[in-house]
Amino acid sequence: MKSFRKELWFNVPKRRAFINITPQVEECLRESGITEGLVLCNAMHITASVFINDDESGLHHDYEVWLEKLAPHEPVSQYRHNGYEDNADAHLKRQVMGREVVVAITEGKLDFGTWEQIFYGEFDGGRKKRVLVKIIGA
Ligand code: ZN
């Protein structure tokens, strides 16, 4: 069995964003030389997500509106997280959107369903953050 590990770095200038990281994960898969196995991709921060869905700008707008309804950023005084931190909403948004994805690798390709793409969801940007890509297989 082979294994491959790489960290992808992001520095999103805005507080929130959704970034399609499928090309970077595919590049990791090429680098790994693995053609049959599994890829795990997870955010290494508790205010960011990795998830799979459609690369469609209307949907991404809908996520933003929906997440702001569930856990509005303002007023930050509504939250108790650490007493003073202004990113409680980012922790809650991350919980809803998830920490990681696992994708099967078949014949050297990510074995996606129709329209599936991998996204990095940033909920407290303005600093460097990492995503782990771990690939195992043969
Ligand atoms: Zn926090």
Topology overview:
Blueprint: E1 2-11, E2 17-20, H1 22-32, E3 37-43, E4 48-53, H2 57-70, H3 88-97, E5 100-106, E6 109-110, E7 117-122, E8 128-137
Antiparallel strand pairs: 1-8, 2-7, 3-5, 3-8, 4-7, 5-6
Bound molecules: zinc ion.
Strand element count: 8
Rg of Cα set? 16 Å
Order of helices and strands: EEHEEHHEEEE
DSSP helix fraction: 25-40%
List cofactors, ions and other ligands: zinc ion
- What would you give as the CATH superfamily? YjbQ-like
- Low-pLDDT regions: none
Strand order of the largest sheet: 1-8-3-5-6
In one word, what is the shape?
elongated
Number of continuous helical runs: 3
Question: Kindly state the mean pLDDT as a whole number?
Answer: 97
What is the total domain count? 1
Which CATH first-tier class would you pick? Mainly Beta
CATH topology: Jelly Rolls
